[in-house]
Amino acid sequence: xxxxxxxxxxxxxxxxxxxxxxxxxxxxxxxxxxxxxxxxxxxxxxxxxxxxxxxxxxxxxxxxxxxxxxxxxxxxxxxxxxxxxxxxxxxxxxxxxxxxxxxxxxxxxxxxxxxxxxxxxxxxxxxxxxxxxxxxxxxxxxxxxxxxxxxxxxxxxxxxxxxxxxxxxxxxxxxxxxxxxxxxxxxxxxxxxxxxxxxxxxxxxxxxxxxxxxxxxxxxxxxxxxxxxxxxxxxxxxxxxxxxxxxxxxxxxxxxxxxxxxxxxxxxxxxxxxxxxxxxxxxxxxxxxxxxxxxxxxxxxxxxxxxxxxxxxxxxxxxxxxxxxxxxxxxxxxxxxxxxxxxxxxxxxxxxxxxxxxxxxxxxxxxxxxxxxxxxxxxxxxxxxxxxxxxxxxxxxxxxxxxxxxxxxxxxxxxxxxxxxxxxxxxxxxxxxxxxxxxxxxxxxxxxxxxxxxxxxxxxxxxxxxxxxxxxxxxxxxxxxxxxxxxxxxxxxxxxxxxxxxxxxxxxxxxxxxxxxxxxxxxxxxxxxxxxxxxxxxxxxxxxxxxxxxxxxxxxxxxxxxxxxxxxxxxxxxxxxxxxxxxxxxxxxxxxxxxxxxxxxxxxxxxxxxxxxxxxxxxxxxxxxxxxxxxxxxxxxxxxxxxxxxxxxxxxx
Length: 653
Known about the structure:
By secondary structure, the chain is of the alpha+beta class. It has five domains: 4-108, Alpha-Beta Complex (DNA Primase, Chain A); 109-243, Alpha-Beta Complex (DNA primase DNAg catalytic core, N-terminal domain); 245-360, Dna Topoisomerase Vi A Subunit, Chain: A, domain 2 (3-Layer(aba) Sandwich), CATH 3.40.1360.10; 381-440, no CATH class; 474-653, DNAb Helicase, Chain A (Orthogonal Bundle). The protein contains 28 helices and 21 strands. Strand 3 (32-35) and strand 4 (38-41) form a beta hairpin. The protein is globular and about 100 Å long. Keywords: DNA replication, DNA-binding, DNA-directed RNA polymerase, Magnesium, Metal-binding, Nucleotidyltransferase, Primosome, Transcription, Transferase, Zinc, Zinc-finger. It catalyses: ssDNA + n NTP = ssDNA/pppN(pN)n-1 hybrid + (n-1) diphosphate.
């Protein structure tokens, strides 16, 4: 039976999930370490120092115990790259050459509709700013400034550059007249709320506007440059549902085809550098959003390139930033080279002063290796015309050379160092070998953290269990309770989920207390997700009588999922939901450490506990209704209204 999700055929989603292993997908963005049957790392969706982000290979899902984010490979790409469900599926399908065709089908989820409205608003705002720059008196000074910087009409159109007038409500009025919800626009980062709380104002005023696009080419943010001198020079859109500066690279959408063709990306610091390089014929240039390079940036580049040329400004700040970027790029599996620009010169200035041809020949083609760059940067801090300066430089340079894995490379750089500092090659080599021995020794008390996942490995199935991932085994310890089942007790009060699943103590940082009926509902759903027989049993005896609305919805979706004659598949089931709240709930339930074995007695105990809570709540509501009717008969309408609000609260619970 074929169904469709978000206008995408089910068969396409199945194929995408089958071809995109969760560990390899997440491993591009997160450094994962194997821990038993799980992979763990620092969550990319919130700041943390202790890893609570977990990937389960046999279930093909991820879940963070810290922030609750969870889902399958498609969901991960949606969140990490700010994509809608259809966009993520389309990109992932293209990456593995799966034919993609969107058809009419199930309506988009509320989240996708909100994303669609914001994308439309950003598209119209971009065109509005572009029009103001090129066709109005307001934009004339900005247009003259750009042309003076060598950015002509062709480049302005290519990069869709615009101008925001120095007025308070130009964009606000534009959006309001087109019936956009201004509160939603403020949430999406296009406008700002007034400090008084009364109405909205333009976020960007008196600035040249550079649209920032996602990898699909859709505008998701702006960078506004002040016209003339002032502070801050650049202002970016705030982070929003669409935009996370740690996961977006300027011009990646336009540069991606050239990057893939050349297998090389050129990483700049600023938008002006990218644009100037484009005019010079360098179409594989990208830049970060005024922030440091992140692991997510490096992983994005790795999807299209094998090599990165870091081309930062020639001042100390630019060179230091390049030094920090090198290990991040190398850890992502990229080869790295560094452009050697003259001191104090940025790429934009170099191109305008020397021309594009010379930039390509002397900067791009003559880029240095990372070792040569590190040594050149070190050399600037020493006086090589003095003996002490030469010796100090040699001491600083040797650890850099010693870290090289290739004996041939080490010898080349040691010979260069020998001629620079006037010390024999053999002496330097001996010192280098001593440093290598020290570097190979583990620090006192240092423990082996276990094998880390750094992408797919040649000749095998990666480092999380080879080719045979299998279904895994949740273990037989713990069970559902110390005596096997709830025992039909009514006096459970609050129960910690790990009291029913002791293994949870080792995996959940927060010991959240759950009512007994919720623990029972989670246990049933856990078993239903992995066994169709359990789902049929629960459907016949409990149906939709779950007390927790989200769990009732999940159960209903599960009944429909299995009605399509599908086998248990947590990852595929999550893809069918397209509801962020339910996706997180299912991911949390799948990660529970309960035993997989079950009995009808255990299921009956769970159902009894759930129904007892439902009966308790129902009887309470009925009593309240009787009280409300008595109050109405007595003419006490204020009391009746108060009781009515209590009834509504009970029904919501």
